[in-house]
Amino acid sequence: MKFFADTSDVNDIRDLESTGLLDGVTTNPSLIAKSGREFIPLIEEICGIVKGPVSAEVASTDYDIMLKEGQKLAGIAKNIAVKVPLTEAGLKVCKVLSDKGTMVNVTLCFSPGQAILAAKAGATFISPFVGRLDDICHDGMELIADIVDIYGNYDFNTEVLVASVRSPSHIIDSARLGADVVTCPPDVIRKLYKHPLTDKGLAAFVEDWRQTGQSIL
Q: What is 2-212's CATH number?
């Protein structure tokens, strides 16, 4: 399973990239606004840090403008995935861009039917939002299971990119269900390192080694 960082913070991106565990980055208008930086230069910088796909989202809901925005974003770098909303206009843009070889991430997916449409439109990634479904008392992971199951019945090339990830359990459940990608805030990725028994065991090893008075160097 691939790990994408859901952030526009270049310091976090550089740090995660240095681990060798980062496969890509997703951004959205809210994350860009939070950064306080100019959109295009920021996306260019991120594309220079990571080798994998970098999702950059269109800002319009109108087909003609959305297409022009998507074409401009696609020209930033070869690893750009143009992010479009799961609307009729968004899927039309997805079809045009994907037919020309541009990666497209169709976002704001909340039903299996929407996921089928995105795959038929040629999406590279479909982004179902599990956390937001959980927020309204729907099982977000049930949606992932449905999409993975449906896609497995056909020759769709669209990858299931689990979004709105809130906890390590979302990551583990996504892997168990066979999702292709998870995109997570950096802090959620880092929580995978943590386990109290790891901390306890390491503390004991460090103390035992200290008592030997030895040094490896």
A: 3.20.20.70
